[in-house]
TrEMBL record:
Domain of life where this protein originates: Eukaryota
Pfam families in the cross-refs: EGF_2, EGF_Teneurin, Ldl_recept_b
Keywords: Disulfide bond, Signal
Secretion signal, residue range per the UniProt entry: none
Lineage, broadest ranks: Eukaryota, Sar, Stramenopiles, Ochrophyta, Pelagophyceae
Coiled-coil stretches noted in the UniProt entry, renumbered to this chain: none
Start and end residues of each EGF-like domain: 30-41, 81-92, 958-969
GO MF term list: signaling receptor binding
Cellular component annotations (GO), alphabetically ordered: cell surface; extracellular region
Full protein name: EGF-like domain-containing protein
PROSITE patterns per record: EGF_1, EGF_2, LDLRB
Source organism of the structure: Pelagomonas calceolata
């Protein structure tokens, strides 16, 4: 009686009366109000949203709504989701935008870490698709001003990323951009040109705003402003102004047609040419929303011209913004091309205008040229791509060409000649002489430096006016330490042009005094070398001075070296012109090997001289000094000609047409420019110019003018002009008598001048280069704060640093007077100078301070009449046999490529995956987690490190952000449990594609195709990139009567509790299935929920069948009825184990001679509740077998956690049963399920 009362009370009342957070429904179950959950509505529920990962439910369908988006747990006390670190939002439904790396965070005013490192805007995929800033968001916009596309995939509002501010980049906006510019080692290319069109009917008021690189012009432009004012406003933008302290001169040029205001009633087209910035410039766009007019039309116009040649059949398509037009015939007309472009989803009617430029009336490949004008607000559209399958007379042939205004010069970080330190943590050890880079700073490669016109590494290091060209590729490293540069200095030589042709008794005496056994010595006129300079002790008496080739008496003059091509240019007065010859001293030094063998190699053959060519013929017998400009693309030669009694001249020769080196080198008259008229028209008198020198840093030409050369007047001068002779000024005219040689020390902004002065009493003069006043004014104008005067080392404007030298070791006096100094060079390696003295026959060496320096002037070698001099500083390519002291060989191009040689201006040809000078590695690419969509269902294009990590360009490895993994950071990591293990160590991390293959319904495997087609409209782009924890489910084991606790939760950190039938509901039944089987032998196997039994003999008993099924981890217990499994039936037994009608069915009779129940077994599932899936049979090994499986009784018992009569402790996996309930057998009786599925009987107390 007491039991019945308790049962009635329990059925009449819900647990804790639903805590007043719900209504008590039938069967004693609470129906909770919104925001509450649990059997007694005792918990708060959390918001559900699109799941980041779940088991796909159908082909290419996943991401059903789940609580906390399946990437967080619900705090049942507060109702708020506790999200994984990568996620945020009420339902953990959004990516948390990244910030700086673990050791460098950005904080807001409240001490919180800021999104995007404080240098960007956190936005969703949907917002990014609809936005445009011309910097990072560059999808198309229409003339109507509608930007972007309506992206609507599942992740549109959930995946978020950073849109960085100008000057920052990286997925977390924690990297500072470096300047991009043209690679100075390449030649050619065009500047980009953008066009602004503005038609504004009167009255026209308001303002225009133009944007570039994420910045806008300020103050705003008025329609009455001119192109000059537009040019000024654009020039103030950071993208064109420079990196903080130096303004790039004339970065753009703007011109309007017709001239006048930017806007006019009939329309004005303004062209904007980017002079400094190279390559494909980011979109320059216009916003005319604030322009007020009765009728207006404002857009950026980009013209592209199509032309066709050599085709009379076939077809082609155009590609714009990643979209391809429909197929066009080879003879398509302007209207057909326009229609095809307007059919693209990213272009509206009116965004493109196609007109015929040159009409032959037969379409594109029939002779028409088509002009495609894009007229959208965004301007400078990228070039169309063309995919053609043209035919010529039925065979493949012909081509379609496109002309465009996009810049074609390179747009490379650090000009392709340096390493950009974007984060302030360079992992490459650069030379000690390089400045310590900070973030956003270029560490330039050897031989390159900052240039105001071209960018951070846009200028070769012109240390001296006698720059000998680009000689080698950068990045010499050892194989074992590929990131540690090795200093390489080759053997060094001076070259001297000697005008003598006599026996040199003085030289002979000096040689004998030094111990040489020489009976005679002739010093014929010609070209000499002295080298190697400063040989090691081991060299002993290896030859120093060597005669290379003869020149006719007194025909020598100036000398200059082009060491990129290993050539020497020199004056030959016999031909009244110039010659150029090949040098082979690299062969000598490469083959020499050890120093001990050097002298033998040198003496074996004339390895120094190959052949020469006449460069300039029959011009003048009085040519003196020459200078080379060896910058790629503008190679040229300057020479000074005193002309004897006539006024002197200065000439320029364009050497670019002669660079092929495979034909005659004779200069055509069109290559030579006489600069004399340009110079003299400025009031400058060219009286007696002697030498020329180039300041390629500031692009200036210097020359000395000896005046009347009467040795009585100090009328000598040093002049400076632009390289074309304009803007000529005198930079030195004090205390100079008859200046001859000139060299510029460009590192110290000083020049050293040779002055014959009084007869047989010359001097060496050092002075500033005449820039001091200009530099001071420019510094004040631009607010330069650093001390620019550290660049100067000389203490006075004019200083005589040598008038005598020590010639005692070469047959002269201790204080030999400088007599007729002629040519001078600067040894930048040792900060020394060498000059020739035609009066004494000596080549003199000194440091740059002369008699005031550490090494006073001394005679270095004895010649006859030395004039021109050139220096090979040993900075050419390393010998192939070059090894370090420890024997390690070295590699060029940082060990990741090879040098292209002089043909490529010593650019590195990099191995795959490396770029720059092969010191920058690319990282793997994967689908970008965040980018700007280009279609409603098209996004996630390939990006380096999948835009979820930072590339370490020194190693080529991605450093993935929190929550991402994979070589390209392409996979969303599985969650990490509280114990620090992936999936808490209780599950398997699978991609959605793998998870779909493991999908099941009601426990039955049902593989699903997910990610089957990654087309433009695919919703399953994430098939291989989002991962999910599939938690372990041990199932039944150790003869248990209930399913062992499985792991559950998005991170598999929680325990699943036992399930059972709700005891309040009666009349529910276990599932019962039947197996009808007939066979004469063999075996079969049964499968339930993916688990398969061992082979079961055809004549197995019910006990054997039961044992086989209960051995599966998917079944706890079953009841099996039947005698023998698949034996044929027998109607009448004639005796024990004997069938009267069929001897093969003898097993259908028992030992007593009675028929058995064979071939019809009944299997009842007593542990698996509900409507379970049917057994599956493999009867392939039965003999003469037939098997049929069917459902006799559909399971109707509930399969709910803790039978809805207790709460689940997710830490232990145990049910905490309500009072009066305990473990059941799922059939309203006590059992071992631990499921709270039965009410305690009166007088009996269970465990739970």
């Amino acid at each position: 009686m007491r039991y019945l009362i308790l049962l009635a009370l329990a059925r009449a009342q819900c647990p804790d009366r639903c805590n007043q957070k719900g209504l008590c429904g039938k069967d004693g179950l609470c129906e909770c109000f919104t925001g509450y959950t649990g059997l007694a509505c005792q918990h708060r529920s959390c918001v559900s949203s699109t799941a980041w990962s779940d088991v796909p439910s159908a082909t290419d369908q996943a991401h059903a709504p789940l609580e906390c988006s399946n990437r967080g747990y619900c705090n049942r006390q507060t109702g708020y989701c506790v999200c994984d670190p990568l996620f945020e939002g009420f339902a953990c439904e959004k990516f948390r935008c990244p910030t700086s790396g673990a050791d460098r965070w950005a904080f807001d005013e409240f001490g919180e870490k800021t999104e995007c490192s404080g240098h960007g805007l956190c936005t969703s995929m949907r917002e990014a698709a609809r936005s445009f800033d011309g910097y990072q968001l560059n999808r198309s916009a229409h003339r109507s001003g509608d930007y972007g596309v309506p992206y609507d995939l599942w992740d549109a509002d959930h995946i978020r990323g950073c849109i960085c501010d100008p000057g920052y980049e990286g997925y977390a906006c924690d990297l500072v951009t470096c300047d991009k510019g043209d690679d100075r080692r390449t030649v050619g290319g065009t500047d980009e040109v953008a066009h602004l069109y503005c038609r504004c009917a009167s009255p026209c008021n308001g303002t225009l705003t133009m944007f570039l690189g994420g910045e806008e012009t300020y103050p705003l432009l008025k329609p009455t402003d001119t192109a000059t004012e537009l040019q000024t406003r654009l020039g103030l933008l950071r993208a064109l102004y420079g990196n903080g302290y130096v303004q790039f001169p004339e970065p753009i040029q703007a011109r309007s047609i017709p001239a006048g205001p930017l806007c006019s009633p009939t329309g004005t087209l303004t062209s904007i040419t980017f002079l400094r910035d190279s390559g494909d410039i980011p979109p320059l766009w216009v916003d005319a929303a604030e322009l007020e007019s009765p009728s207006k039309e404002v857009y950026m116009e980009t013209n592209q011209t199509l032309s066709c040649s050599g085709a009379n059949g076939g077809s082609f398509v155009l590609v714009y913004d990643g979209r391809t037009t429909h197929k066009l015939d080879h003879d398509a007309t302007a209207s057909e091309v326009q229609h095809a472009l307007h059919s693209l989803p990213t272009l509206n009617e009116g965004d493109v205008r196609v007109e015929t430029l040159h009409s032959a009336g037969s379409g594109l490949c029939g002779g028409d040229s088509l002009v495609i004008a894009f007229t959208t607000p965004l301007g400078n559209q990228p070039p169309l791509e063309i995919i053609s399958s043209l035919l010529k007379n039925g065979a493949p042939g012909g081509s379609i060409n496109i002309q465009h205004t996009t810049g074609t010069r390179e747009r490379l970080e650090c000009n392709g000649a340096g390493f950009c330190d974007k984060a302030g943590n360079i992992t490459i050890n650069f030379e000690d002489t390089a400045p310590a880079p900070t973030n956003g700073t270029c560490a330039c490669d050897e031989g390159f430096e900052w240039d105001p016109d071209y960018g951070s590494c846009g200028r070769p290091q012109f240390n001296t006016s006698a720059w000998t060209g680009l000689q080698r590729c950068p990045g010499y490293v050892t194989k074992d330490t590929a990131l540690d540069p090795v200093d390489v200095l080759n053997l060094r030589y001076v070259y001297i042009a000697d005008a003598s042709n006599s026996t040199a008794d003085v030289i002979l005496a000096a040689k004998r005094k030094a111990g040489a056994n020489i009976s005679s010595l002739s010093v014929p006129g010609g070209m000499y070398t002295n080298g190697p300079l400063e040989p090691p002790e081991e060299c002993g008496d290896c030859p120093q001075q060597r005669h290379l080739w003869n020149l006719t008496n007194s025909t020598a003059g100036g000398v200059a070296l082009d060491l990129q091509w290993r050539e020497i240019y020199y004056v030959d007065r016999e031909i009244k012109g110039l010659r150029v010859a090949q040098l082979k001293n690299t062969t000598a030094q490469h083959e020499a090997g050890l120093w001990i063998d050097y002298k033998e190699k040198v003496n074996q053959s004339r390895v120094f001289y190959d052949s020469d060519s006449i460069l300039l013929y029959n011009r003048s017998r009085t040519i003196e000094g020459i200078a080379l400009n060896l910058i790629p693309g503008e190679r040229g030669l300057y020479y000074a000609d005193p002309k004897g009694d006539a006024p002197g001249e200065i000439h320029y020769i364009d050497l670019e047409p002669s660079i092929a080196h495979n034909g005659p080198r004779l200069v055509h008259k069109t290559q030579e420019t006489n600069l004399t008229r340009t110079i003299t028209q400025q009031g400058v008198k060219l009286i007696n110019p002697h030498s020329v020198a180039l300041d390629l840093v500031n692009r200036k030409l210097y020359w000395t003018d000896a005046g009347q050369r009467n040795y009585s007047d100090a009328d000598g001068k040093v002049w400076r002009s632009n390289l074309d002779g304009t803007d000529a000024v005198c930079v030195l005219d004090r205390n100079l008598w008859d200046p001859t040689g000139l060299v510029l020390d460009l590192r110290n902004y000083s020049m050293i001048v040779l002055d014959e002065k009084l007869h047989d009493h010359g001097a060496v003069i050092k002075a500033n280069m005449g820039y001091e006043a200009e530099i001071r004014a420019k510094a004040e104008m631009n607010g330069i704060k650093r001390n620019i005067y550290d660049w100067y080392r000389n203490q006075t404007w004019l200083q005589e640093i040598a008038s005598t030298y020590d010639a005692s070791s070469h047959g002269g006096d201790k204080y030999e007077k400088v007599k007729r100094p002629y040519g001078i060079v600067h040894d930048v390696v040792n900060d020394m100078i060498f000059w020739t003295d035609a009066g004494t026959g000596h080549v003199v060496r000194s440091d740059v301070h002369g008699m005031h320096g550490a090494e006073t002037p001394k005679a270095y070698m004895q010649q006859g009449v030395p004039l021109g001099i050139a220096l090979d500083n040993g900075l050419g390519p390393a010998p192939r046999t070059f090894v370090l002291e420890n024997g390690e060989p070295i590699q060029e191009c940082w060990g990741h490529g090879y040098c292209g040689g002089p043909e490529t201006n010593h650019s590195c040809i990099c191995d795959e995956g490396w770029y720059g000078n092969c010191n920058v590695s690319s990282c793997p690419k994967g689908p970008a987690w965040f980018d700007q969509a280009d279609g409603p269902r098209s996004a996630h294009r390939l990006a380096e490190c999948s835009n979820a990590g930072t590339c370490d360009h020194a190693t080529g490895l991605c450093r993935c952000g929190i929550g991402f993994e994979g070589g390209a950071c392409e996979r969303l990591s599985c969650p990490v449990g509280p114990n620090g293990d992936t999936c808490s160590g209780h599950g398997e991390c699978l991609t959605l594609r793998q998870l779909a293959q493991d999908a099941s319904y009601n426990g039955e495997p049902t593989p699903i195709a997910y990610g089957s087609g990654l087309s433009e409209n695919s919703t399953a782009w994430d098939a291989d990139f989002i991962q999910h924890c599939k938690c372990y489910e041990p199932g039944y084991g150790n003869n248990s009567w209930y399913n062992l606790s499985a792991w559950t939760g998005y991170d598999c950190s929680k325990r699943a509790c036992p399930t059972g039938d709700n005891p309040f509901v009666s009349g529910r039944q276990f599932e019962r299935q039947y197996v009808e089987c007939k066979a004469t032998g063999g075996s079969l196997q049964l499968t339930f929920r993916g688990a398969t039994t061992q082979p079961i003999a055809y004549d197995a008993s019910s006990i054997e069948v039961k044992r086989a099924l209960e051995a599966l981890h998917t079944i706890g217990s079953v009841g099996v009825e039947g005698d023998v499994f698949c034996v044929p039936p027998c109607a009448t037994c004639s005796g024990p184990n004997t069938c009267a009608s069929d001897s093969d069915a003898h097993k259908a009779c028992d030992v007593y001679g009675y028929p058995l129940n064979v071939g019809n077994f009944s299997i009842e599932f007593t542990s698996e509740l509900g409507d379970v899936p049917p057994l599956r049979v493999d009867s392939s090994k039965l003999l003469e077998g037939t098997v049929k499986v069917g459902e006799a009784v559909s399971g109707s018992k509930a399969d709910v956690v803790c039978s809805h009569r207790g709460t689940c402790d997710e830490l232990t996996g145990d049910c905490e049963c309500f009072a009066a309930y305990t473990s059941s057998d799922a059939n309203n009786s006590f059992g071992l399920r631990e499921d709270c599925g039965v009410m305690l009987s009166s007088g009996w107390v269970g465990k739970k």
